[in-house]
């Protein structure tokens, strides 16, 4: 797949929305778009202007991709009212390009906070505060019939100190509670039923698959590591977990309480998986992860 950064022009210095917003510098690139830091240039805005992130997308797409893009924008708009979902302020369409005006998160993504800045390392209070926000954001989406399907640290933005999280990137989100779109998401975070190779149920619950992904993210935040690469029996670590439900506690620096929570998340039967409200209650009771 060719990254959009290779096919989109350089928009640095361009103004959009009738000259109101000026694109300043590239702050991120991905498969489908390029993100710029941007400034609201109106005199009525606070001195120095308000900063945004603007995601630039191709508008000239094949019909199928165009439908996916429209779905992403519609679902993000519905979810955007929650304080822990990245706010979508507006969508600006030109002849060939679409611009999403989003909140700017100077702390970058959760992946960087975990692996580069280590903001949650031995900070149980901060970890609990942040993860509860993520649970609330995902539950908000689920309550509105939106299932993310690509929950991972790269799709979660945060404040500089890691105390505030914002769910983002609804490119794979769906309104379908049951899906046959196997292999949807990122390998480390996919549930066994979403992978669909060994535990093929014919279709899978997108709600329960999101909960599995939340368990991997919690493991990331606590340990800085992934428990396995693929939730399949040919993955040595996952196979070990299936044979020994305490494998994660033996291999990772996690408490007994955390191990009990992860065992309730990482169940092969999706419908016996812990619910988000029950997961929230269990995390609230934790003193040490």
TrEMBL record:
Q: For ATP, which residues are the binding ones?
A: 55
Q: Which UniProt keywords apply?
A: ATP-binding, Kinase, Nucleotide-binding, Serine/threonine-protein kinase, Transferase
Asked if Ion transport is a keyword of the record, the answer is no
The segment(s) forming the Protein kinase domain are 21-289
Q: Write down the Pfam families for this protein, in alphabetical order.
A: Pkinase
Q: Annotated Gene Ontology MF terms?
A: ATP binding; protein serine/threonine kinase activity
Q: SMART domains under this entry? A: S_TKc
**What domain of life?**
Eukaryota
Keyword Repressor on this protein?
Answer: no
Say which family it is in: Belongs to the protein kinase superfamily.
- What's the protein name? Pkinase-domain-containing protein
């Amino acid at each position: 797949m060719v990254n959009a950064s290779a096919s989109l022009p350089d928009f640095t210095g361009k103004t959009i929305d009738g000259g109101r917003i000026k694109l300043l510098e590239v702050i991120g690139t991905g498969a489908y778009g390029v993100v710029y830091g941007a400034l609201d240039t109106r005199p009525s805005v606070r001195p120095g202007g308000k900063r945004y992130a603007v995601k630039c997308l191709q508008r000239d797409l094949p019909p199928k991709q165009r439908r996916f893009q429209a779905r992403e924008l519609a679902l993000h708009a519905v979810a955007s009212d929650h304080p822990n979902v990245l706010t979508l302020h507006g969508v600006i369409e030109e002849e060939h390009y679409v611009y999403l005006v989003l909140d700017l998160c100077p702390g970058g993504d959760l992946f960087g906070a975990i692996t580069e800045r280590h903001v949650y390392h031995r900070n149980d209070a901060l970890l609990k505060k942040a993860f509860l926000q993520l649970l609330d954001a995902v539950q908000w989406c689920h309550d509105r019939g939106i299932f993310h399907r690509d929950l991972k640290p790269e799709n979660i933005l945060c404040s500089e100190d890691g105390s505030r999280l914002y769910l983002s990137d609804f490119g794979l989100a769906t309104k379908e509670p049951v899906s046959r779109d196997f292999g949807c998401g990122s390998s480390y975070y996919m549930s066994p039923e979403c992978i669909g190779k060994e535990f093929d149920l014919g279709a899978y619950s997108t709600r329960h698959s999101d909960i599995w992904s939340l368990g991997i993210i919690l493991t990331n935040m606590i340990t800085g590591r992934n428990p396995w690469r693929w939730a399949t029996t040919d993955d040595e670590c996952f196979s070990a977990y299936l044979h020994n439900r305490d494998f994660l506690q033996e291999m990772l620096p996690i408490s007994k309480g955390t191990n009990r929570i992860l065992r309730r998340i990482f169940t092969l039967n999706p419908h016996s998986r812990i619910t988000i409200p029950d997961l929230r209650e269990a995390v609230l009771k934790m003193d040490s992860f």
